[in-house]
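Data card: per-record layout.
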Amino acid sequence: MPTLDHRVRRFDVRVFSSASDAPWARRPTDIVLLITATLLTALLSFPAPGPTAIDAAVADLVAAIPGLLGWFWELSYDLLLAWALVLVGATLFAHGRKRLLFGELLAGLIAVGFAACAGLVSGTRLADSLGSFAASAPPAVYPAMRVAVAAAVIVMASPHLSRPLRYLGRWIVTIGAVGTVALGVALPLGVVVGVSVGVGAASLVHLMLGSPGGRLSLDQIADSLRDIGVEVTEVRNVPLSPSGVALATASASDGRSLLVKVYGRDAWDAQLLSSAWSSLWNRGESARVGGRLRQVEHEAFVTLFAAREGVGALPVVAAGMAESRDALLVIDTLGARTLDTAASDGSEERVVSDLWSQVQRLHGIGIAHGALDAARIGVTPEGAVVLADFSHATVAASESSLLAERAQVLVTTALLVGQERAVALAIAALGADRISASLPYLQPAALDRITRQAVRGAAWSVDDLRGLAAGAVGVEEPELEQLHRVTIGSVATVVVIALVAYTLISAVSDVGLATLIEQFEKADLVWIALALLLSPAVGVGQGFATVGACVRPVRLGPVILLQYGIQFIGLAVPSSAARIALEIRFFQRVGLSATGAVAVGVIDSVCGFIVQVLLILAVTLSGLATLDLPTSGSSRSFDGTIIMVGVVVVVLLAVAALAIPRSRSFLRERTVGVGESLRVLRSPTKVSMIFSGNLAAQIALTVILGLCLRAFGQHLSFAELILVNMLVILFAGFMPVPGGMGVAEAGYTAGLVALGIPHAAAMSTAIAYRLVTYYLPPIWGGLSMKWLRGHSYV
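The structure for this 794-residue chain is written out next.
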């Protein structure tokens, strides 16, 4: 009797994405999915079992849908269970899929256990949780048990299914979840937790058993090679590479040895995680993620370009997309062996000299290989050095990338021929100046993982090699270039800031963690969502003001993205030096000098400060709002007197500075070249842009503060919100704490309490406001930085 797999092949309908004998591997995205699902379930356990404000809003929305859709919701809810049973049945009758069947059943059982535990934690009886699996009508039970079990089975089977069936399963889970809410079987909160539990259970099973991830069998690889015009006689598997690309070796019909790289979902998953981690951990790197075909095109292009310019690179035989929708790259290995196994016949020095020659050619055309370790350097039977695997290569690479790569190659050659010979050969090939310039990058942070492990087993360290190289070129050992964003110092800074924040907030509010959790459970999250949607408008106003402060014409769009990028830099590298360096880099690219670029920021900042002071004076002097600040048991109202006294003091200091000759000379030296930039202050249009942009940004911030306050059931007048917002911005700006972390939260809490807001609501509002305006904007700020780099603005 023919099996299901045979029937599938006969009718040319692909149910499973991989053959039954395809190798299984643990996919990195399953770790991310499991962690995300666990955290989401834990966070949602605080407001569980509901109903929350969002539950009520969704229930009202569903109630407004015409009743005609009742049959549709019932069908979609039943389809959850039906599709899960179809997948189990298909696996049961398919040939060689018993392991998948076990995984589906195990995922369903784990989902039942996790969902029951989540219900018990939130007060749902075990009998009610289990009984809700068969329920199709109210009352709502937390969490949605059927959704959890169905999602677990569907997500568990997803990597094994063809793309249409994977997409169908996702739609069934989505529509079924909506149907669960529409029928009143569970609240939206319970449905979200159900999906989260199902995804987490499936990810856990994937990590326990592995999954094929769409990897092809040897026969399928041979078929795919024929699709792109390559005939082979034999295909052999190579273990999954660290980058997640499925590798295979093949013998061409003419006897050549070929390396086949199959880019599937594993390749995308691994590149996404490794690239994102590298961009967060290492300075000067950004995430590089693309589709399968784009990855193949990138590697093939760089390889062919390097070979055309005389670099020894393994030839590209073919590249393209097979009918299976897998992208393939075929490389002729030329019979080369890797560097660590090839040069053992006394030709090591010649090989190292040839390697440096190839690296120089590569860097001469502006390409950094990106992963030039011993495994990616080959030696042909004729003794020629060839470079392999350009998947990490960067075209138009920065100088720092090239210097770091030279340091990597120096360490690689030292592992081959020893420290002294490696340094001598490098100096002979590059010269003392280039070796000296690479020394700050000669550190473990510049090496790949394999090379670092090899150095640990050597009789010398990277520090020893750097000292030897410095002595050979006759220079002092330089200070190391900081390659990692995260260092012991940065971690210590964050810890200190956290302690300061805790101390300050505790000083102004006697609110515990349990009270805060209770406040956020009762909060109307719709208002916070609106505040988050309005948050990008702040950057638009700031960008408008910056355009006005720039003496040269500049496009508004890139300047707005610059403001978002500054928000990213402000959190990733919380120091004014990083922000100023970014602004200088940007305005130099649009034609300003370094002095002119600094002047733009100064003009914008000073005018923004004036707008803030004028807003405070307008509110306080008009009597629209006052702050009752407690001092030593008494109450003292804040008015504009303090600000006025401060302005007078600043004016007197400025006059004194101009009256002192030495001070006047110092200021004159620092303002050379600023005169051209100050011409914007003579233009009414430019001045109006500066002040209106800053005013719009401050109004947007004030509205966001009001929305966050409404989320916790409180309300203040617009004038009162302006007063507390402007005062805290000024106060936090003068404090020597990066980003005002902790200081701003404490200031907003104290200001809102002074305006009559209860302590718990004030502190919760301060946290929500800072989350919306400071801690979350770097998400789109990182994307803006990528765009600015890609278009050569920074």
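Known properties of this structure: Residues 339-473 form a domain with the Transferase(Phosphotransferase); domain 1 fold (CATH 1.10.510). Residues 319 and 329 are 4 Å apart (CA to CA).

See the next section for split statistics.
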